[in-house]
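Structure first, sequence second, as always.
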């Protein structure tokens, strides 16, 4: 789901049932549009791969792994956009830590 303001995008409502341990990731386009020295984009596929590999981490470490992957990909290239990420982890009242 894309969040933002654009005349070309028609917003739609969605509902999800979250189970304990499920996460929601909200990231700005500065993450997926990060570029390496050859002008390649980090992209949705690379982000999805990191997310699938790191699902057992805490929300903080989950976010940090995305940021580190993005930094590693872009190496020393100066990025032209903000890079914002928010991870929400659903916990039941019975869960102590995740």
């Amino acid at each position: 789901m894309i969040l933002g303001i654009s005349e070309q995008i028609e917003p739609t409502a969605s509902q999800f049932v979250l189970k304990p341990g499920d996460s929601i990731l909200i990231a700005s386009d500065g993450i997926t549009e990060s570029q390496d020295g050859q002008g390649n984009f980090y992209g949705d596929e690379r982000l999805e791969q990191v997310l699938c590999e790191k699902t057992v981490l805490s929300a903080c470490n989950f976010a940090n792994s995305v940021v580190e992957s993005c930094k590693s990909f872009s190496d020393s290239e100066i990025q032209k956009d903000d890079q914002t990420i928010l991870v929400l982890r659903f916990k039941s009242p019975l869960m102590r830590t995740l």
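Margin note: Helices lie at 29-32, 43-53, 59-74.
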